[in-house]
Amino acid sequence: MNLEKVVFGFFVTLAASLNFGFFYGRLDDPSVHNGYELVAALVVSLVTTVLKFGDRTQLGAVHLATSLVADLQLLVAASIWVWAIQIGSGVITPAHMSIIVSMSGGALLANVVSVILMVSEIVQIRR
């Protein structure tokens, strides 16, 4: 068993599951979306991106691209959250939350693509 592959697979899967945990729920209801879960999803996504920098293959480049997309969308979502609390009215409105959750949904899609790529790479190695 390759420890590097285990760590990589763990963080890719954790990033997707944390993002899904934040994303799941009514789009405009701030009470079902936890800010700490968004921060955790962002931090794990950034760690996943760092882990993907060493791979010099074409598949590694696509992995890195999907991770960068997820990072960008989660950064925008977190920035909107901070802006709404610190600069805006001080509360998260349903309009803010729908934008935040939509950005998280885009990041979730990028994470799902990354998981699919990881599984397809494993299947190719087995053959």
Question: How is the secondary structure organized here?
Answer:
Elements: H1 3-23, H2 35-52, H3 58-87, H4 94-126
Helix pairs in contact: 1-2, 1-4, 2-3, 3-4
Silhouette: elongated
Second rung of CATH, namely the architecture: Up-down Bundle
Portion of residues in helices? over 70%
SS-based structural class? mainly alpha
Do you know the CATH topology? Methane Monooxygenase Hydroxylase, Chain G, domain 1
Radius of gyration, rounded? 16 Å
The DSSP helix count reads 4
Distance between the termini: 17 Å
| Low-confidence region ranges | none
Range of strand content: under 5%
The CATH C-level class name? Mainly Alpha
Number of strands: 0
Number of domains: 1
Q: Quick check: average pLDDT?
A: 91
Overview of this structure, please?
The protein is mostly helical and 127 residues long. It has helices spanning 3-23, 35-52, 58-87, 94-126. It is elongated.
Keywords:
elongated; Methane Monooxygenase Hydroxylase, Chain G, domain 1; 127 residues; mainly alpha
